[in-house]
Input
Amino acid sequence: MKIFWTLVLVMVWGTTFSQATSDVATLDSTIETLYAVISGEPGSTRDWPRFKNLFAAEARLIPTRKDAAGNLTCQALTPDEYVKLFSARIATGFYERELSRTVEEYGTVIHVFSTYETKEQKAGPVTNRGINSIQLFKDKDRYYILSIFWCAESMGFTLPEKYLR
Output
């Protein structure tokens, strides 16, 4: 029986490790995983360990916000702080998908300008759109997200047509 449970544990760990590795093996898989792990039905638990695996230890997520007086602000969050904030605020469903992407690369530096839309239901109406400015570090084995700085149309800015193609 001990051998059986050891084999089960090894298979589960191997599957998880394999997924974690494939999630960050390419730029496409890294961005696709980012959008996939934050999307889901109301009350569904997100795969936060998978989400955190996308990021470098020093990573920050930086939303653009408006304060009570209507002034634009931003606040840098660690991935753990983002998870806590996201989990407390999203009682409805939340789906985010990429509409288009502009990529600039040099050596280990990758910058992705990713246009997105959000919905509360997978087949529901669009509730917001915006740009995720994503900086990544490419080492020899994988991609690491260093930062995501974003601004949504709800902040008062209309997306230019060039970022919707």
Observations:
- The beta strands are 55-66, 72-74, 95-106, 109-119, 126-138, 143-152.
- Confidence is low (pLDDT under 50) at residues 5-17.
- Residues 2-163 form a domain with the Nuclear Transport Factor 2; Chain: A, fold (CATH 3.10.450.50).
- Residues 83 and 89 are 10 Å apart (CA to CA).
